[in-house]
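Slide 14.
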Amino acid sequence: MKQRPKILLVDDDVDLVKVMSGALESKAYEVIVAYNGQEGLEKARKEKPDLVVLDILMPVADGFTFADQFRKDPSLTKIPVLALTSFSESLGQPFPFEVSEYIVKPIKPKDLVAKVEEFLKKAGVEQ
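Slide 15: predicted structure.
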């Protein structure tokens, strides 16, 4: 039996996590949830997801810290990271850390699912 693609969703907004994980699970993805950057790093190292959807502003360890530590871990460097943010456009330029793409919040669940499908396809992950 084919293994479902794993998506790590890292966001401190409990309601958003419920909506987004529900949308992803409806498409047969295995969703792993973390509510801050530190928890996200621990789960990424343990679970080795196929894709990370990362909020930027979070308590404990924010998205900046997560992305920096994530990219320094050789076992995680090839995993794409989609960063969710409500303020990227106001900065006028990318954040000072490497992610695969920035997605401006709010995002509709169907649009998130479409982005996830696009990045898993680019990464060569069977869906």
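Speaker note: DSSP finds five helices and five strands in the chain.
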